[in-house]
Amino acid sequence: xxxxxxxxxxxxxxxxxxxxxxxxxxxxxxxSTNQKQHYIRSWIKENIRxxxxxxxxxxxxxAVTGKEICKCGYRKASHSEEAVKHEEFLGETWDLxxxxxxxxxxxxxxxxxxxxxxxxxxxxxxxxxTKPDTLYKLMRDHWGLNVPNLLISVxxxxxxxxxxxxxxxMFRRGLIKVARSTGxxxxxxxxxxGVMKHVGEAVRDYTMSSSSKEGKIVxxxxxxxxIVHNSKCLVSSEGKFPAKYTLDEESQxxxxxxxxxxxxxxxxxxGTHGTYGVEIALRGKLEKFISEQTLGCTDHGIKIPVVCVxxxxxxGTLDTIYSAVMNGTPCVVMEGSGRVADxxxxxxxxxxxxxxxxxxxxxxxxxxxxxxxxxxxxxxxxWTMKIQDIVRMQQLLTxxxxxxxxxxxxxxxxxxxxxxxxxxxxxxxxxNWDHQLKLAVAWNRVDIAKSEIFTDDxxxxxxxxxxxxxxxxxxxxxxxxxxxxxxGVDLKEFLTEKRLLALYNNLPPTSPCLRRILxxxxxxxxxxxxxxxxxxxxxxxxxxxDVLCNLLGGITKPLYPRPxxxxxxxxPIPQLGSNDxxxxxxxxxxxxxxxxxxxxxxxxxxxIWAILENRKEIADIFWQLSQDxxxxxxxxxxxLKELAKEEEDTDLSEDTKALAEQYEKQAxxxxxxxxQRDELRAQKLLTRESVAWGDTTCLRLAVEANDKNFVAQGxxxxxxxxxxxxxxxxxxxxxxxxLCMFIFPLICTGLIKFRRDRVIKKRNPRRDIMGSNDSMxxxxxxxxxxxxxxxxxEENLKPMTRLTGFYSSPAVVFYWNVLSYFGFLxxxxxxxxxxxxxxxxxxxxxLYIWLFTVVCEExxxxxxxxxxxxxxKKAVIYFSNPWNKFDVASxxxxxxxxxxxxxxxxxxxxxxxxAFDFNIWCLRLMAIFTVNKNLGPKxxxxxxxxxxxxxxxxxxxxxxxxxGVANQAILIHNEERxxxxxxxxxxxxxxxxxxxxxxxxxxxxxxxxQCTVDGTDPLKPKCPVLGDNNQPVFPxxxxxxxxxxxxxxxxxxxxxxxxxxxxxxFQDVQDNTDKIWKFQRYGLIVEYHSQPLFxxxxxxxxxxxxxxxxxxxxxxxxxxxxxxxxGNEETGxxxxxxxxxxxxxxxxxxxxxxxxxxxxxxxxEKVGMMVDFLERGKERQSGIVEKRLAHLxxxxxxxxxxxxxxxxxxxxxxxxxxxxxxxxxxxSKSIDxxxxxxxxxxxxxxxxxxxxxxxxxxxxSSVKRFPVPDEKVPWEVQFDVYCPxxxxxxxxxxxxxxxxxxxxxxxxxxxxxxxxGRTGLEGKGKLHWFGPNRALDPIITRWKRSSDxxxxxxxxxxxxxxxxxxxxxxxxxxxxxxxxQLGETLPKRLRQLLSTKLxxxxxSMLGAATKVYEGYVDDPRNTDNAxxxxxxxxxxxxxxxxxxxxYLNTMCLQDSxxxxxxxxxxxxxxIPLYGNHKEILQKVAQIHNAHY
Length: 1492
Hints:
six-stranded mixed beta sheet, disordered N terminus
């Protein structure tokens, strides 16, 4: 796929780009295996590194076990000699950063798993410091992976864990389904354990059940090199192609084996051995980098979405989820998988105020029963805070609940999570519907689009769906095409010439259509003899039109006329992929005034494009939308049959032929429906000129496509029969026709019936009724009908009309020509046998005149061009008819014989040539017999058998020559006479097949007088080799054996083979006799429909008449099988055809629904749904019992706790026994677990305490805050374990709880406490002072104005705009404000935007500005002792001519090269803003009563 800039290339490069797949064979195009390995080897050596310890320091833990192990974890033997000597680092303490260095990697290539199949897996060992773009380039360019449409990061338990069978099946099925349908990459830890093993087994199950054509699932394992078991077999400086890896779990110990079901491995190395988690950082960077790439590799496309799927897991998994959520990555948690996943699932739907420390403790004790005692107080606090932050981001958290009734499949849950996250994203004030729709199209998930996007919440316009419609067409996604058409896409508005060119310029390189188009371009360039220019490259519509004309047999006019000025239409179109949605924004614009739109037929053009690309389902969609559907189906049949001939792939060729047959069936179905409803209208559909298909007819398309089934239909044959009989009634007997041909007065006697007579008879009852009703005066309408009927009656009763109608009938013309032909043959035979004199007699001269008229008729047929195809095309059509070839050959031979006959020297030779020519003229009779229903099929059988004989003669000739040469060599010595050699080697063996055994085969009947010894007698054969007794000396038993073998194979085997071939051909043709005869009957009817009335030799008068008309009459009239209908009539006819097509499709749909296969499938689906429902109900019931037991346990614990409190209270009052109160078990640890009331404010549901100020990682540093859950934020709440870090800019120290108040800054810090509460960090942080740091946030606003300078409105409210700035590396916009230094009155950011003079002017305006907000800001830089307080003021400009406003407008129009962007943003709730700027902006909108 190319970007917009990559597409601007020269035509030579386009030809190379496409032609490399077309004109070269595979060995020339693709690299050999050795070349690929050499290429990837050299690239990896230059770009990929590993890490290796360079300083061996023995680990004391290893010394205890008796092993020499370094601090890095590797044994001493694994270190280099220099590392052991360690002269460079002598005396230093081992340090990972200093003593581990990078070197070129020594492990890469392919892996095959011993004993686990032949699956080949790519792998590479990389340094932990490898840049993610390098890895991405490796995967894309060298591993050959396509750009993913989705990245699925699967995380969870690294150890084997138990999953419920149904949950496991749903996870595997859903994961594979979403990966397969979206083209996703799955990223895991890569080891053969835990969640990675589940993913691998899911990939394995899919691979085993799918075919090779469905594509493979990309499962990338990112693991730590130092924990890979049996890693030594992967090491080789030259790479392993392949490396044989043994999966040995029994001996792996603390290490892990690689999973054999992944497709790629990235093994991350930090120089240590046995350390887990090394890959986490690089994996996160790689996933982050991939998420920043765009679908289709364009700068304007949507970014690759990432989703995190969580199964089970421990503390590391929680860190992964927290990091993902903080980075805006949606997470799908599988409830029921255990541990962390279940803890989050249990609290996901609770308000954050109820997710307290005690509640988290309870969940940890339930799901981490074995490990709960190992959790420290700080860990529990950190877990609580992280889970609160995760649950707070509800738009990024999705819990997949197995027992939930309305829960969809796993794949749907994953995609819904992505869409939910997309909905919550702010996108510069615009709705994200288009973004979500592009994602759904990229994933090819129409079910998600229907359920989540195409709802009642948004009304779609056609222009909104244009880009995604184009992407769906390019990506071959018929379900989306249908969905978009159902939801408002107007094809006339969508399909512009540029979009159609875009579709054709993205044909696949292996497309036969593309080969034809490129060939046309090359021919055009050679013909024009002009150098290629940048404005004349690319596939144009006239190229496509030329190819279509060829594919359709040249019977149509150009569908896309060649433009007069090509440069205005030659628009460079890029090569695009199915996901390049945004790259058309500037390239393809809607131009309603474009004249090219007027000549485009959107439905036809898209249907043609789909057919040329062999996209069956999309073609069906547009065929169902077309009005001229019969012509479209027949044209598709013709195109597909032609493309199938050029297809190199046999399977694809067969599929193309099957699709062609399907369209023929559809044409038959629609026409049958039409013919059953209205016969006359149906016949008009066959013979009307179709403007959409180049002024051709349905009947001509069917014949050109060789659609015998269509032509053999009753309705088509009825039309052909009517044309054949002309004005005569179709049931006229042949003897009547022959009788009237010679006795023409009988025509007027009523012996011959005309079709008009029957029309009159049908109208006579109406006339009789009107005539018998004398009491009622006829109306004006009745008078008109009577007048018209009387005119028709009088016209048809005229003798001349009957004579003209009779003799102009094609059937009568045919009979006259048959009689004429027999007369010609009789005269020809008479002259040859009886009257062939040196001086031609009058009979012979008559023969020559007769032949001259035949020649004139052939010339007329050759130049007869009613369709205006031109000389070349007409010549091709003429010689495509084999009978015309017979005619030309017979005429040429006759002329040659005549030329010889007229000379005295070659008189006899001329007679021989004419005699031979007579045979050809007689064979021409077969064409006449094709009209006969009985003889026609037999002639077809003879023609097919002639082909069989040709192949049979080849086999027979081999045996004849083999036997003849051997027999001649044995019998005759050195025969030099060529005629006798041929006789002995070919002629006699051929006669032997038919029982003529030569006498010289043995010496029993040898007679020396019958041969010549020395070969001097030309009339006798040469004698065989003779002995002294003049008897043959050859061993006759050899010739007899040869003869027996020859007769066995030639006479028995080959002749019986020929009989079997003839029998097969006969049966094959006989089964289709009627169909083939009806199809070939069309050609004869067409020929005699345009034939002159008189037969040869009288036909010369017709030729003279045509010549006179051609010379003196300007208008040209031709008898054709087509008719141009008026506009209104054609529109009505097409509408009726479309209605009949809908009836046909409805009947077809009902028939499919009633089929046995469909009923069995429906029953199977219902049974499956019922079983699934019962299993889900069983598991739901089990889950309810478990929840009730857990609730009962909790109630018992609360009751015990209450009783303990009561007993303590009574004891304190002096009641009861003085014995010690029994202690009750408690979940609490040393942390104060008293629940605190809701930390949520009632107003707007927003948190009462700061959130940004409690982020665990302090911004732009590696300092980690002490975890502070919501309930511990207020200073009033007791928090004994609170021990935050002290951080002042670049100095960090851990506050010791004992001497915490003795630090040097205690005096300053004690005086200042954050007014909102704890932040988890003490000191100033990155702020300037302890206490409040004053900031100023100016909100500079103006009214948004339209082109006519009026204020824009949304609804009834005006629209505001404000100045917003953003650093390019961040995604959040902010006001041009900031913290003020001592003596500053304007923030630094605002001063950077304004000149000194304007700064003074703005400063003077501050006093009159409106104060919007003043107070605390929830800033990530806040600490316990330092925080930001801001004053937000609004400076509003009503005057558009203000100097400050004009300057700011200029700033916004400039493309600044700095890392800060400045823009006028619309005041809208969807804008992504920093901190509490949204709340401030909302107040500004309220002040101005503006839209928000």
